[in-house]
UniProtKB/TrEMBL annotation:
Protein name: Acetyltransferase
Annotated Gene3D superfamilies: 3.40.630.30
Pfam families per record: Acetyltransf_1
Keyword hit for Membrane: no
Alphabetical keyword list: Transferase
GO molecular function, one term: N-acetyltransferase activity
Keyword Transferase listed: yes
InterPro entries assigned: Acyl_CoA_acyltransferase, GNAT_dom, NAT_camello-type
Organism for this UniProt entry: Alkalicoccobacillus plakortidis
PANTHER family, per the entry: GNAT FAMILY N-ACETYLTRANSFERASE, LD18367P
PROSITE patterns: GNAT
CDD domains per record: NAT_SF (cd04301)
Domain N-acetyltransferase: 1-136
Length: 150
């Protein structure tokens, strides 16, 4: 099992990215400017994450995804922890992440990885997505913003 940066000539694993963010235009906008990492197992991409610098000394994890059949096996946590360590080694002082108010499993995971609640971007998913997004029987309306400060 390996987590490594996606090489520029490799095919982007949209099947994974679109699990975490169903808007391909938004995904395309941040993969062009971000650092893209893939989690491989037996030569297959089973997960990925993308980070972009948002401010001096601040980087944001903008997408974290694991194949649905592998949820609950610790791969998401491994990806988030890898992202945190990568950011720390690169000299960032803050790592941010956001998820929907309906992403209750993601909110719990991020807190287990050390993130703390920072603020809520009210109406984010209503402003940025044409179609309603539902998770856990809850509509994604607000973006829950979290951060780790070193």
């Amino acid at each position: 099992m390996t987590i490594r940066q996606l090489h520029p000539n490799e095919v982007v694993p949209y099947d994974l990215l679109l699990l975490a963010d169903p808007n391909k235009e938004i995904v395309d906008s941040y993969i062009k400017q971000g650092s893209f990492y893939v989690h491989e197992q037996k030569g297959q991409h089973i997960g990925c994450y993308v980070m972009i610098q948002t401010r001096p000394e601040t980087i944001e994890i903008v997408n974290v995804a694991v194949k649905e059949a592998l949820h609950g096996n610790g791969y998401g946590k491994a990806l988030v922890q890898h992202a945190i360590e990568t950011a720390k080694q690169a000299g960032y002082k803050t790592v941010e992440i956001g998820t929907s108010n309906s992403g209750i499993h993601q909110i719990a995971l991020y807190q287990r990885c050390g993130f703390r609640l920072e603020w809520i971007d009210r109406g984010f998913f209503l402003r940025h997505y044409e179609e309603a997004i539902w998770e856990n029987g809850i509509q994604a309306v607000d973006m829950v913003r979290m951060a780790i400060h070193f």
